[in-house]
Amino acid sequence: MISFDMDGGTVDILPVVNGLMPEAEKVRSAYGKYEAYGASMGIEGLEAIRMREQMGMGGMEVSELDIVYSKRMSEFGEVVAPSPAFCEIVDLCAKDGRQVIPLDMSDYEYDTAYIECVSAIEFTAEHRLAKKGVRRRFAATTPEDLAREWDRMVSRVRGYRELSRRREKHIAKEIAETMRFRGTLLAIVEVERADGVAALLEEEYGALQ
């Protein structure tokens, strides 16, 4: 947990590993003592999770990079989609009549940012990047380390690095906006983005650890 004092209230960022089944327990353990709950997903993604039983999730689009990431992460436990940590916070809030605050970009905002950040050449290089992920020997001994190491590999591509930075800025801004009106917030953020978001909260919004 990364904790901040901000605007007279408290923000706790809970870093989670995307897709890994045991991460749901982290969310369950942290839940219950906050005025508001947020997650680093867009509004459409959170709604899809909330309605997943009615809609079915079999048609979810999965990139080649996501497939390879899941295979490598499965060395640490069962990997499923949608991500158990995000499903857990949505389900817990729904049971209590709460709405999870979408901290990430909407689908439209993300698509626009992707087009602006990732060049055509970088997009077509995704297959080679995925093959590199298959062959690479990762030094990670924990799922958190693997998530960060994988992110560093992908971030060597300038466009993906810039896209991740934009996401972090958006998430930090939404947390700051939320804290103008709420006293306590638990923000569920994937581990590879959590440190960047935390740094931005300190640098740009005056949050204090």
Describe the structure.
This protein is α/β, with parallel strands linked by helices. It has helices at residues 23-30, 43-50, 52-55, 64-73, 84-95, 107-117, 120-124, 126-135, 143-154, 158-178, 191-205; strands spanning 2-6, 9-16, 36-39, 101-102, 184-190. The chain has a 5-stranded mixed beta sheet, sandwiched between helices. A hairpin with a 2-residue loop joins strand 1 and strand 2. Helix 6 (107-117) packs antiparallel against helix 10. The chain is globular, with a radius of gyration of 17 Å.
Terminal-residue CA separation: 11 Å
The Cα radius of gyration reads 17 Å
Mean pLDDT level: 92
Strands in their spatial order, largest beta sheet? 1-2-5-3-4
Report on the biggest sheet. Answer: 5 strands, mixed
Total beta strands: 5
Structural class: alpha/beta
Shape: globular
As residue ranges, the low-confidence spans are: none
Please give the count of helices: 11
Bin the helical content.
55-70%
Order of helices and strands: EEHEHHHHEHHHHHEH
